[in-house]
Amino acid sequence: QLQLQESGPGLVKSSETLSLTCTVSGDSIYIVNYYWGWIRQAPGKGLEWIGSIYYNGNTYRNPTLNSRVAMSIDTSKNQFSLKMTSLTAADTAVYYCARESRASYADSSGQYLTLDSWGQGTLVTVSS
Amino acid sequence: SSELTQDPAVSVALGQTVRITCQGDSLRGNYASWYQQKPGQAPMLVFYGKNLRPSGIPDRFSGSTSGHTASLTITGAQAEDEADYYCNSRDTNFNHVVFGGGTKLTVL
After folding, report:
1. Which residues of chain A have a CB within 8 Å of the CB of B31?
2. In Å, how far are A56, B11, B27, B55, B85 from B23, measured between CA atoms?
3. Three-class SS state of A105
């Protein structure tokens, strides 16, 4: 059974850099069909996509966070990581990692994207 | 990037049917995926694509898409279905991921 687990500091100071790692177990991260994503949720708010990384290192990032976000993947450790710079209080949130699948129907009727396995999430508080 | 719009809150009587909708330009050519999130828990995928449910999700959860609107229908809502529901899809313009703002479902 696939499991994802986020790890990193729970408290970060304003203007500093957040580093989070997601460790994947139960399957290899080196799979052609999957991306690996980061999503966050501020207290009492909705879900916000941060970015996704492919096994070969290709990344897609939320345009609103683009310049502050970097992602990497370590297939030897079955881990992928997130770095977010210049933190402010607005970055206080629960950060989730997830496995992302992108597929198209063979009849060209459309595409879909799913986040089918999630980590439990880790609360990151940005303090001044 | 595109946005997905959901009603903030919906209520349904126990055992009745409820539809939760998600609207956005990115749904033209893309099917939505739907997630259920209960307090203190990570979101869980409950429906995706044309008509796909992950293993273990009850068949009272179904979905549909028409134009730029996707719907998640719960037929015979149960007390345990009370949760926040989010839609998401691929943003075709930029190959990004977009989420709806979420719908809080109350089962009365």
Report:
1. 110-112
2. 33, 19, 7, 26, 14
3. coil
User: CB–CB of A116 and B45 under 8 A?
Assistant: yes
pLDDT in tens, A96-112: 999 999 888 888 888 89
Q: Between A48, A102, A116, which is nearest B99 by CB?
A: A48
Among B1, B30, B43, the residue with its CB nearest the CB of A63 is: B1
CA–CA distance, A16 with A31 (Å, rounded to integer): 33
Residue partners of B51: CB distance under 8 A and separation at least 6: B62, B63
Q: Hey, is A89 helix, strand or coil?
A: helix
Residues 6+ apart with CB under 8 A from A56: none
B96 contact residues in A (CB cutoff 8 A): 49, 60-63
pLDDT per residue as tens digits for the range A113-123: 999 999 999 99
Residue B70, beta-bridge partner list: B22, B65
Integer Cα distance of A97 and A120 in angstroms: 8
